[in-house]
Structures are given as C-alpha cells and as structure tokens.
Write a structure and sequence with these properties.
By secondary structure, the protein is mainly β. The protein has one helix and 21 strands.
C-alpha cells in the first residue's frame, strides 16, 4: 500500500510541499489498489490470472460474421490496467486492438509557470483497426469476467417460456412448436443450461401404428428426442393419450436459438397438448 505521510506537517511553521512526484505517487497508488481488487476477482471467478489476457468487465460483445465483424463498446482489464474499449462495426477482418492516447478537451491545455501550454490530462483507451494482425490482442481473445461461475454448481438464473399453446400436425418432418423458442443472451457469455420440454400426445386409433415425436433443437442440432408410439390391433377407433418428455444439460454459446419441435410419427393427425418449455441456467 502506498500512502503519503502527513503527520509531519506542523501548521503553520512546517508545511509539506506537494510536488509532481507526489501526484505521480498518488496516481500509482490508486492504480495499484484497483488492479489488486480486479486481479482478485479474476482469480476467484476464473481460477487464474494472466497479464496477456483482456478480461471483459462490461460490454465488448464480439459478433464474428464475415464481412461484418463487430465489437460493442465496453471495459476491460488488461496488462494490469483498466481501459475503456471503443465500439467497432462492419470490419472485414477480426478486429485488432491497440492502445490509443487522447486528451480531455475540457481540461487541456494547461499553462505552466514558464507560460508554455501543454496537454497533460491523458486518456488511454483501446481501439480496433480493420487489419489481419498487429494488435496487442484481437476480439477472439476477450475473456468474460462476468456470467456463470464454473466452479459453483448452483442455480444462477432461470428463463421459462410460458403460454405454449396446443398444436396439431400430420407432418412426418419436424416443425417448430409455436412459442417454444428461446434465444440465448447475446452478451459474449457461454452458459450451461438445463433444457426441458414436455407434451401430451393425443391421437386416434384406426391405423396400424400411430403416435408423435418431440425433440429439443439447439442451433439447428437435435439434442434429445422423445417418442410416443402405439400399435393399433383393435378394429374399433379409439383415442390414445401419452406423454413425451425431453431433457438435456448443455453448454450453449451466446445468441443461439433453442427450440422444441414436433412431428407425426406416421402421417396421421396428432395433437400436442399441455406443452411446457423450460430453460434453467446452472
């Protein structure tokens, strides 16, 4: 800890000067205190700390879709120091970030005792350039300092998609169950989710085999399937009701679509009733 000793001041006979070196001493002390706090948070949340990693404190959401790479404005902790990060968009290359210096226009310039005019109120930020390489780091190097703590097996938050209405289909190809769709937050954080789907499959006998299917789809990939099938042997027409339940635990990247889909097993009309779709972040 750095601290200026003021106990030796005896007012008014012994006054203590405050020099440029004193000001630098106080600025260094503040920077070291802030760095120590953030380093402890990094280590607590992520398990380790590195000077070469740009840790995201807020914002800095990277969307990597060529030719429109973009990063939102935010804040990072890098090389032991705090920086603001300026937004960029419509880049053809992955954004490369370098430190830039500017002055506070409301505080500069100042006039020194020798009547010279100087800029001294420096602002250090990180700004992106649209080049292939050459930055202190690029947008893919960001490591989020917020979000789910991977060391804690606790419930952090939940999102339930309500009011999934009854729906019927005779399609043997999977179709989306209306309102049973959720897009993960586009904040740069990959989260672990417990994803659940449930339906009551109602269908009528009269064909040799009938039934329905339910599946969980994450970013276009089927992650779990449940089937409700029955072989009809009686000649009379009868009504059947069976349940389908799907469940998976999965790490899902930001801005990905999660949905439930339904299908008729063999082309007869099937009702999907009492539908539920739930996502819980763990």
């Amino acid at each position: 800890m750095k601290k200026i000793d003021t106990t030796q001041v005896t007012d008014p006979s012994t006054l203590q000067p405050f020099t440029a070196r004193s000001l630098k001493f106080l600025q260094d002390a503040t920077a070291e205190d802030v760095a120590g706090i953030i380093k402890s948070i990094v280590t607590s949340n992520l398990g380790s700390y590195s000077l070469s990693v740009p840790y995201v404190i807020s914002g800095c959401v990277y969307s990597g879709t060529t030719p429109n790479f973009a990063v939102t404005a935010g804040e990072i902790f890098y090389n032991g120091k705090y920086y603001a990060v300026n937004a960029c968009s419509s880049f053809t290359n992955i954004p490369q970030f370098n430190e830039v210096l500017s002055q506070d226009p409301t505080a500069d310039p100042v006039t020194f005792s020798d009547s010279s005019s100087k800029n001294v109120h420096n602002i250090y930020e990180y700004e992106a350039t649209d080049v292939v390489s050459g930055g202190d780091f690029d947008a893919t190097d960001f490591v989020s300092l917020y979000g789910t703590d991977s060391k804690l097996s606790v419930l952090r938050s939940a999102s339930t998609i309500p009011a999934v209405a009854n729906q019927a289909t005779s399609s043997t190809s999977y179709i989306d169950l209306t309102n049973a769709t959720y897009t993960t937050p586009n904040d740069g954080v990959t989260r672990t989710w417990l994803i659940q789907g449930k339906t009551s499959v109602d269908f009528t006998g009269g064909v040799p085999i009938n039934g329905g299917k339910l599946q969980i789809v994450v970013d276009g990939v089927s992650e779990d399937i449940s089937r409700s099938l029955i072989e009809i042997t009686a000649s009379s027409i009868q009504q059947y009701n069976q349940s389908c339940v799907c469940m998976t635990v999965l790490s899902v990247a930001p801005n990905k679509i999660v949905k439930l889909q339904i299908a008729s097993a063999f082309g007869a009309s099937v009702n999907f009733n009492d539908n539920k779709f739930t996502m819980v972040e763990i």
